[in-house]
């Protein structure tokens, strides 16, 4: 009997698996085995299988639950090939609900490009999987911790980076090795503050059954005209996390006034710290999923100041 492969590849589609069709549009066509062949990896290097086959912009929470369950079932180093559009969200879910040596990678150029970046990224990811102890994203020669990662460029090879200030990763939400709590059925909406905004969208989200809200706020955490709706959400027991729509820097709720960050924080809004709105949403979803699975009151994890 041959020894088990040290690294498992779970492919989900994305640009790394895409080729151009007759109409020129990119669609995922390459399988996990194809990706390994493209990268010069053999079955002795990687045990390859397909978990999903889609564009990551179409990934649902149910799809993510299936992927998390597949990663959990492996029980060893895992590489996940994934579209870059929503990779930071999946990376956060992996970090908060699983942990361990999981490496996410993808590509900015399709498999049939004259100079694809996917094969090198996959080789780097397989190498990293043998040494990392926690979830990371590997692209363009860079390795970035999953907690705090964000897509920083739409086309550059080094697609992902981290915050410009250190991130204090909070305590795990679950015991290592625990099965991931399901996310499907929860709803957390991201709402953006802008000049002239009012609370219409906040109220619409609440009417739609939002379990939580993330605000992509002005500057360091000011919400302007969204504030009355945020107050109604907090009064209804719906958690609200303040992030910033600005590319760099975090939330520092120091401004007063009706929509100021300090006013909202005093009313109970949480800070997303340096997390992107997308990652803060997934962080909150993971907290809610764990609390739903075990309703014993817990102190919410995540940046709180």
UniProtKB/TrEMBL annotation:
Residues 7-165 form the L-asparaginase N-terminal domain. The active site is at 15 (o-isoaspartyl threonine intermediate), 15. Transmembrane segments: none annotated. InterPro entries: Asp/glu_Ase-like_sf, Asparaginase/glutaminase-like, Asparaginase/glutaminase_AS1, Asparaginase_C, L-asparaginase_C, L-asparaginase_N, L-asparaginase_N_sf. Substrate binds at residues 56, 84-85. Its EC number is 3.5.1.1. GO terms for molecular function: asparaginase activity; transferase activity. One of its GO terms (biological process) is amino acid metabolic process. SUPFAM superfamilies: Glutaminase/Asparaginase. The keyword Plastid does not apply. It holds the Pfam family Asparaginase_C. The keyword DNA-binding does not apply. It comes from the Bacteria. Residues 187-291 form the Asparaginase/glutaminase C-terminal domain. Keywords: Hydrolase, Transferase. SMART domains: Asparaginase. PANTHER family: 60 KDA LYSOPHOSPHOLIPASE (PTHR11707:SF28), L-ASPARAGINASE (PTHR11707). Belongs to the asparaginase 1 family. This is asparaginase.
